[in-house]
């Protein structure tokens, strides 16, 4: 009689723990837009959520500690003229966030420590070049000030935020249809894209060449997502011909057949994958689902191992994922998600059960730190480098706030003048202020005339 052997893994018993009510963010109006992005971005300082806004696009930025009920008049980032579709924090500066919008622009913002006290309408830089809405924004993982954007004009643009210039463009000849997702490799040398033409492509962005591509990784017609995982592999989520949701693991050198293909269920929501390179765990969060599945990726067959699933009663409208340096290592927390409900944001901690309170070195290998490994010029010159690693043994201490400086002397005409991080206003901002001052002076003069007439009338009586 054969006995089935259970695979040994230290992550077999990982469990999800939702935060208590007083640790959630209440009364936030999450965006109703149907775009398939997470609508939430998190780092060790702030949580940002795309919100419903009248007369344009806005997103909310709150310090992590500012939990509880959010005031309905809380200041927001509201510079876009159409709904915001995607937001992402800079990995090398916890005060800088980028946003893509239906108004065809990408804007980069600097959030002051402690959060906003007034609505933020002036970005540090506006990146203009797309002709249709911008649905994907992604920072380079190791090069400073390099930002990628993908629009519904089927164009991918790579920007040097330090100059406000588009330094690379991948036109519609590479992607003939809408781009669903873009993901950087760990060293930033390649990008992986999924497209409406049912192809997944691996691209060297500096040369503009497609290194490898796979036609129809999933047979269904619904959107596919693709991310890089460990050891030259990519993971895709999609749908079968019978509309069953699937997850597949591929070797980038042999894309003919998947290393692993698993069918999950028949729900209709697109699965958003989040990969943790430190533990080799991938988390799948479906929009409209009420669960988070997680799998471990290994180097031996069958390569993709189902671990468990966190379930709750309410479905999720979006999801944010905390970088490893923002976790509580003394509680053996290996991941934290920020689940968006209709009017609430709920943190969910994924924890490995351990009895000891000591630092668990096997759970926390050196992880990506906040310092860039390359400058934009070095990366554009052909250099690649993995992230600079830090140890979490003594806890993560955030560095001092860094200013994002934009060199306007290298303006290419694609970018509107914007205020520098030092606080010097742009010429546009100065002219607007002067116009407001003139209007105010006219109002004061009119009030003074009325007051004089009123005094004359009183004296006459």
Please render the helix and strand layout as text.
Blueprint: E1 15-18, E2 25-26, E3 40-42, E4 46-51, E5 57-63, E6 68-69, E7 77-80, E8 84-89, E9 96-101, E10 105-110, E11 125-128, E12 134-139, E13 146-151, E14 156-160, E15 165-170, E16 179-184, E17 191-195, E18 199-204, E19 209-215, E20 225-228, E21 233-239, E22 245-251, E23 260-263, E24 271-276, E25 281-286, E26 291-297, E27 304-311, E28 318-321, E29 333-340, E30 344-351, E31 367-368, H1 376-380, E32 389-390, H2 427-460
Parallel strand pairs: 2-6
Antiparallel strand pairs: 1-30, 2-30, 3-4, 4-5, 5-7, 8-9, 9-10, 10-11, 12-13, 13-14, 14-15, 16-17, 17-18, 18-19, 20-21, 21-22, 22-23, 24-25, 25-26, 26-27, 28-29, 29-30, 31-32
Question: Major β-sheet, in short?
Answer: 6 strands, mixed
Helical proportion, percent range: under 10%
Give the tally of structural domains: 1
Query: If you compute it from the alpha carbons, what radius of gyration comes out, rounded to the nearest whole angstrom?
Result: 24 Å
Poorly predicted runs: 409-426
Which descriptor suits the 3D outline? globular
Distance N to C terminus: 114 Å
The CATH superfamily is known as: YVTN repeat-like/Quinoprotein amine dehydrogenase
| Secondary structure tally: strands | 32
The number of helical runs is 2
CATH class: Mainly Beta
- Estimate what percentage of residues fall within beta strands: 35-45%
Please name the CATH topology: Methylamine Dehydrogenase, Chain H
Biased composition (Basic and acidic residues): 403-418
Subcellular location: Cytoplasm, Cell cortex; Cytoplasm, Cytoskeleton; Cytoplasmic vesicle, Phagosome membrane
Keywords: Acetylation, Actin-binding, Coiled coil, Cytoplasm, Cytoplasmic vesicle, Cytoskeleton, Membrane, Phosphoprotein, Repeat, Ubl conjugation, WD repeat
Domain DUF1899: 4-68
